[in-house]
Design goal:
Length: 568
């Protein structure tokens, strides 16, 4: 059997085997398009839709090349023949096999069950618009899933778990099945128990057939089931022997569990990505870095080039719906051998879950992974004062603890810098331009050993819960510090009003928690520049990192820095 579980009943509510044969298997879509000089385009199949507060996300089972020729199509609620078209906002590859298409919110009185049309082609796409009309709410949704050994790690919104603590896993189960979200027929599904649960992550055991043959589970949909009180009290299910000897009992039990258990809607599918599961043949990178960002493309060059010089060897960029040309910047950096990859992460306000996902992804490639933002820069004041070489300092620091039997996390305090009297972005970058900061450090950021994280993957403000028996190390501020260029010139800073990526941080336009340390003191809910902004957050003039950068990285002849774009 394709799926099996030794401990949980298999639900076969009208199981219909389906053989999927690619359309036009002899003459491929690409060759057919070539033969017609690309005048004929095939309809795009919309698998799922997710309604966000500011846009509509479509998950499509095709790779999309010419996104600029694609329109979002909306039907009127009471008249499906009344159709309006709007240009797509953006398109990205997603999870290797699907694409995500971001559409504007539907016009008033038009359905969010949008379809897609190629512009300028007179093909009737009504069938694709009528196929799957499900629209998921972002408030309650399973949105990602990943293999991790003999378990599946499932990411879900709307479980209302405590933000900073583990939760009772007995409240949940995972459901694996061959079904689409719009099908009334349940198809063929099996449930397994949750092992741990925290924040937006539920980890469940895999059915034995998937454990033994993960390649067979490519594209299988997975969701979280909220267990009924009866299942919570009796977590251990009857054995497989009991199933075979008491089929009528099983059928009755399955029907009862269908009614009692509540499955969270899901767009998540499992893919056996080789890059996540296979270890590097030539050994792991000593030091990697992961961040999540939105519209920070101009900051990437300085951040990546500087920290590469300090020893970071591999970069994971989780892009949270940027539309500022970030892909071009990353491709240029990767072309220059900076080993950067961009991961499309379309799920808004899920930074902690994204970091958990990144930790899984990086574990087989990296001994250490730093989780810090693109406006945060590591600095070694003691080495600078003594005139010691600075290259690869960060990698050397973590390498000292790579074989430690107790240290699994290195924490570094942050100094917050202000606009430093500037009114426009510094042309040589933030490390040189901003030189005035607050007196006391705020918070800290961490570099962790991803194979020594607690199985919940619980993380708060850039540090993780570790496996039992391991601890973190606080490094002295005199040895290493992070310059956090938090309060930049207003032109740059004001963007923070429009999107915060962290799950448990309120967007600044909302009139909530205005005393949070995440906000700038004294700011309201509107992006209006306060008086004397350029002089604020300035208690100590600190030119240490500026001098460190100019001494080590500036061109001796021109004084230019590696991240400055040539004017030629």
């Amino acid at each position: 059997m394709f799926l099996s579980s030794e401990r949980f009943p298999i639900r076969t509510v009208s199981f219909h085997p389906v053989v999927s044969v690619p359309s036009l298997s002899i003459l491929s879509k690409n060759s057919l398009q070539d033969s017609f000089h690309a005048k004929l385009r095939f309809p795009l199949s919309v698998e799922d839709r997710v309604l966000f507060p500011d846009h509509l996300l479509l998950l499509v089972s095709d790779k999309i090349d010419e996104a600029e020729k694609l329109d979002c199509v909306y039907h009127k609620v009471l008249n499906h023949k009344d159709v309006v078209r709007q240009r797509v906002l953006s398109v990205d590859e997603f999870d290797g096999l699907r694409s995500v298409v971001r559409c504007p919110l539907p016009p008033w009185n038009y359905s969010a069950a949008a379809g897609l049309m190629w512009r300028g082609h007179g093909v009737d796409y009504s069938l694709s618009l009528r196929s799957n009309r499900t629209v998921h709410s972002w408030d309650r949704l399973v949105y990602e899933a990943a293999f991790d050994g003999k378990t599946a790690v499932v990411f879900a919104k709307g479980l209302n778990l405590r933000p900073h603590k583990e939760s009772d896993p007995n409240r949940f189960m995972c459901q694996f099945g061959l079904k689409n979200s719009d099908e009334e027929d349940e198809g063929f599904v099996v449930m397994t128990e949750a092992i741990v649960a925290a924040q937006e992550v539920v980890r469940c055991s895999l059915p034995s057939s998937i454990r033994n043959n993960p390649d067979l589970a490519q594209g299988i949909r997975v969701t979280v089931v909220l267990a009924s009180r009866n299942d919570v009290e009796h977590v251990r299910m009857p054995s497989a022997v009991r199933f075979r000897n008491s089929r009528s009992y099983d059928r009755r039990r399955n029907r009862m569990r269908q009614k009692e258990n509540i499955a969270v809607p899901s767009v998540a599918k499992l893919y056996n990505s080789k890059s996540y599961q296979t270890k590097r043949n030539d050994g792991k990178f000593e030091l990697c870095a992961c961040t999540m960002l939105w519209n920070q493309a101009p900051a990437l060059r300085e951040w990546i080039m500087y920290h590469t010089w300090l020893g970071v060897e591999r970069w994971f960029i989780y892009d949270n719906n940027s539309d500022d040309g970030i892909q071009d910047v990353i491709e240029e950096l990767d072309f220059q051998d900076y080993n950067v990859s961009r991961h499309t992460w379309p799920w808004i306000k899920t930074q902690e879950a994204g970091f958990s996902h990144c930790a899984l992804r990086a574990r087989n490639e990296c001994k250490w992974v730093g989780f810090f933002d693109v406006d945060e820069f590591y600095y070694f004041p003691r080495h600078h004062r003594r005139g010691l070489p600075g290259q690869n300092l960060l990698r050397s620091l973590v390498a000292n603890y790579s074989s430690s039997r107790t240290i699994a996390e290195i924490r570094t305090a942050c100094h917050s810098f202000g606009p430093s009297g500037l009114s426009s972005p510094p042309f040589q970058g933030v490390t040189v331009g901003y030189t005035c900061r607050l007196q006391s450090p705020e918070r800290h950021k961490s570099i962790v050993r991803p194979d020594l994280l607690n199985e919940t993957l619980l993380n708060v403000v850039h540090h993780f819960q570790l496996k039992k028996g391991f601890r973190y190390l606080n490094v002295p501020e005199s040895s290493i510090i992070i310059n956090h260029y938090k309060y930049q010139v207003w032109e740059t800073f004001r963007a923070k009003f429009f999107r915060r990526v962290a799950t448990y941080v309120v967007d600044w336009q909302e009139n909530q928690n205005q005393g949070s340390k995440d906000r700038a003191p004294g700011l309201g809910t509107e992006a209006i520049e306060p008086p004397n902004w350029r002089k604020q957050f300035c208690e100590v003039w600190d030119t240490g990192l500026r001098d460190f950068v100019l001494a080590n990285l500036a061109d001796p002849a021109t004084g230019s820095l590696p991240w400055e774009k040539s004017l030629l």
